[in-house]
Specification:
The chain is of the alpha+beta class. Helices cover 32% and strands 23% of the residues. Helix 8 crosses helix 10. Bound molecules: flavin mononucleotide (FMN). The site of flavin mononucleotide (FMN) has 20 residues, from strand 3, strand 5, helix 3 and helix 4. The site of flavin mononucleotide has 20 residues, from strand 3, strand 5, helix 3 and helix 4.
Length: 425
């Protein structure tokens, strides 16, 4: 074989090997992409329900899993009388008589030395607005900074114990050290409560603290949270126990109140006889008028119907609004053509009034009321009927009639989550 033929064969083999290697590489990256895609699709298509198996417990080891924990600020003096604050979550009431509070501190904290020496401390309870100070007092040490000076908070010398309290915090508990225990990582200080001082702004007439006004802070999982939603009066919720175990539906727990309301809203078609007040209707209408509108035209007017005869007439004329015979109130959302703008965008009044209507439905859900959107526009016959019954001027076009009332509880929200309706690009 001559030399050039031999070289050509070697070259051809080398090219073949290169092509095979490239194809394998492509194949691998395709496989990788495919599995990434399937992970993504998988995580997107999983419904929240499939993530939760109630009552199936998994051991997570030794952790401080007390939820929620408090996040309060301890005030103390150093030997020279310099005031300091530190945030503590390892804190709680530990005795009733004498009323005592236990707080645990690491020896590395400046406050540890302060309290050991001064034999007193204050517990300063924040409202949620003060969270930045709570965070600051828990991240920096009095060994390095003057936390009062840096934050602008005001130290007030307690007239009862040898410790400062924070003027701007709404609740202050003044404690005298009675004993302490070295537990290992922390020293637990026990303080006898000498006095509690509370801002009058959050006190009820009987000197109880209004928790809604306080907006207490809780700490857990490395985050701070605001509390305050009323659940039940102590002792009253036991009335609901009937021997049937209740399985919490964790898939219906939402990250915040707005999402809870959105997902719990349902079309309510069954009402009790309880009347809805004028204030409640005004709250609904305020929510309606908070909706966005094209060019901020707010091209709407709202008719509030409470007369039995009128509600009944509407119920007779509107084929899908028979619940009006039961409801005590209805809101009719109308487009106001005089405010709807020029010809080019007059069409926006429907979107604008629809946004207002949805706000009304959501506000009703949030207030424990029920409501349902029953259509008027674009059906000519229904629009004519509503116009006639309410004696509407020509420029007011009724988009819908929304019966409002107290729900009987028969109507339930639907799960409309369908990942197949989403196209990700
Ligand atoms: C939310 C939160 C809770 C904390 N709880 C405690 C606690 O209970 N005990 C403790 O020793 N340190 C706790 N710390 C850490 C101290 O606040 C932190 O070490 C601080 O810098 C100590 O301040 P000092 O050195 O000025 O006393 C917590 C910090 C944060 C942010």
């Amino acid at each position: 074989m001559d030399k050039s033929k031999f070289l050509n064969i070697i070259l051809a083999i080398a090219v073949l090997v290169l092509v095979i290697q490239l194809m394998q590489k492509e194949d691998e990256s395709l496989k990788q992409n495919k599995s990434n895609a399937s992970i993504m699709v998988d995580s997107l298509t999983r419904t929240p329900d499939s993530l939760v198996v109630p009552f199936k417990k998994k051991s997570i080891g030794v952790r401080s899993a007390i939820y929620p924990k408090p996040a309060m600020v301890i005030g103390s003096y150093n030997e020279a009388g310099k005031p300091n604050i530190m945030t503590a979550a390892w804190i709680g009431v530990c005795n009733s008589d004498p009323l005592s509070i236990a707080v645990s501190m690491r020896p590395a904290t400046y406050s540890y030395g302060n309290v050991t020496h001064s034999k007193a401390f204050t517990v300063n309870i924040p409202s949620s607005e003060l969270i930045k100070y709570v965070d600051y007092a828990g991240r920096l040490s009095g060994k390095d900074v003057n936390k009062f000076k840096e934050t602008g908070l005001t130290p007030i010398k307690s007239n009862l114990v040898n410790a400062p309290y924070i003027k701007e915090f709404p609740i202050v508990i003044e404690c005298e050290l009675t004993e302490y225990y070295d537990l290992g990582s922390h020293r637990q200080f026990i303080g006898k409560v000498i006095d509690v001082k509370v801002d009058e702004a959050i006190l009820k007439p009987d000197d109880r603290i209004d928790v809604n006004l306080l907006k207490p802070v809780v700490y857990g999982g490395g985050n701070y949270y605001e509390t305050g939603r009323f659940l039940a009066k102590v002792g009253e919720s036991i009335d609901e126990i009937d021997g049937q175990p209740f399985v919490p539906d964790y898939s219906k727990i939402y990250a915040n109140d707005a999402l809870r309301v959105i997902h719990n809203r349902k079309s309510v078609r069954h009402f009790t006889e309880q009347l809805v007040s004028k204030e409640q209707i005004e709250t609904l209408l305020k929510a309606g008028m908070a909706a966005p509108t094209a060019a901020n035209r707010q091209p709407w007017v709202f008719y509030v119907v409470t007369q039995r005869t009128v509600l009944d007439s509407l119920g007779e004329q509107l084929p899908y609004a028979k619940m009006l015979f039961q409801a005590q109130t209805a809101i009719v959302v109308c487009g106001d053509m005089d405010k709807a703008g020029n010809l080019a965008d007059k069409g926006y009044w429907v979107q604008d009034c629809a946004a207002a209507s949805e706000n009304i439905l959501l506000a009703a859900e949030s207030m424990g009321l029920g409501a349902v959107w029953t259509a008027s526009y674009p059906y000519d016959d229904r629009t004519k009927a509503v116009t006639q019954i309410l004696n509407l001027p020509k420029n007011h076009v009724p988009l819908n009639v929304i019966p409002v009332g107290y729900p009987t509880g028969e109507d339930l929200p639907k799960n409309k989550w369908k990942p197949e309706n989403i196209f990700w690009r």
